[in-house]
Amino acid sequence: MQAVTPPRLRRAATVALFAMSAALLAACASQPEPKAMVNKKTRSKEYFAESEYGVKASPRVISRNGRIQRGGGRDQLGKPYQVRGKWYYPKEDKRYAKVGLASWYGDAFHGRLTANGEVYDMTHLTAAHPTMPLPSYARVTNLKTGSSVIVRVNDRGPYHEGRIIDVSERAAQMLDYANTGTAQVKVEYVGRAPLDGDDDQYLMASYHPGNRAPDPSDGLPTGVM
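The structure corresponding to this sequence follows.
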């Protein structure tokens, strides 16, 4: 003979089961996210740590999906400055030609002000250099592939030992190292650039492909200027 549970006991059991389910859901919701997920969300904020470089990253003035107007900055050379204990002395050296490591920076800086007041656009052929006049032009050549392009220098950096230039994501793609993060390059000063920033055609026309096609990968930005 099957036992019959009184209605009052059935209601009590239902309430207890509901309370237990709610408690389990609350516990799951309160669990911290996996470390990898947290790092993924906050990574872009840590590309230029003030604690390491002694200066804050510039403010973002255009959203990641906003339209960025070319130019709009100021012509400047600047006074000597210090980053990470090293002094830099901006000047115009018309014979500047140097071989070293190039890195690149991407969406973490997209829409932020550059050192001369322009707005960084990762899809434009721009670069950061510690001492060249702003804005100016420099030719960057990948010594491994032979790819070469002129970039608009409108920002300061990089500040890692051995690195001589930091180019935009687009420039890194054309120079074949967006996927590897860095490349051995030759940097040559070309001259001053106009303030209006309307130089896309000039920069694209300066491109010389090397012995392999530009890297189609979006790559992983080095994240360090």
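The two ends are 79 Å apart (CA to CA).
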